[in-house]
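Many introductory courses stop at the sequence. We go one step further.
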Amino acid sequence: MLEHPLPSLRWGIIGTGLISSWFVEDLILDRPNKVANHIIQAIGGSSLQKAQVFFEKYPSGNNVSVYGSYKELYEDPNVDIVYIGTPHALHKTNCLDAIRAGKHVLCEKAFTLNSAEAEEVIAEAERQGVFVMEAMWTRFMPLVEKLRELLHQEKAIGDIHRASCDFSLPMDLSSFPSTSRLKNPALGAGSLLDIGIYSLTWVILAMETNFGHEQPKILASQVIRDEIDIATTAILTYSHGKQGVVTASLSTTSPSSFCRIEGAKGFVIVDGPAASMPQSFTVHVHNQEPVKYEFKAPGRGYYWEADAVALDISANKKGNSVMPLTETIRIMSLMDEIRRQGGAVFPIEETV
């Protein structure tokens, strides 16, 4: 009996920064039990030199096309899907250009600058009949799948009452040039879109059995310095007094135990180098020995989201059930409200 071949995707990589390098490194890993084949077909940079340097630093095959413009990559007939790893403020334009060229899209978080931009991109993808997804890779990790199973199906710690998550990463912003994506408000700089989105995601993963079933009320505050939010705090209040606490800062460092989930029968602590890279969680049930769950895998784990995309596209789906497009719009809307209360505004929004 012949086995069905694994689905294959030919990727075009847009952007030559750190996040794109991590994504490519993971896709070309020789890993056991893979469920899809990933081919790096093309690299597109804002200049040919940047694209060539990226290609030479992260070798991904002999037949990779290297382009000095994004447009050339979009027009490559051998590219099935475009991975977008550019700064937040460029996501909308990059997505629309790729979609209008007939390409599927996996776009890094935050998907766009705000919910209005996200809706515009998703509406265009629907018109063009292509697949699009936000690359919130943490949602696809086996650790998250197991944690949500224990929390929401097995009710391991009973009804959940509160969850908190912090992602803080000290950055000496004074040392960066004004053009840096980490400092320039026109590029979407700030704690919320860059790292706070992870804290928000963890709280939602912990508190919500069905995403979007209940829209939490938001109470938020931000510290604004040099036109960007360097610290963000938000409280999400659900019915029956359930609360989630979201924090992010560019001035301090998160503890390794970055997330705590509290229930009627106990609590869960999630550990790792950062909220974006969980490595284990420990379930503490009252009057029982704690149980630790550890998850080790090759690379960083970007291939799990890429695998999900490959399987969806092979099944002719236009979106993903783990990171639904409706959820992307909702997350952007929640961050819009956090910024509305906190005071962070992007220059493009001031002209609207």
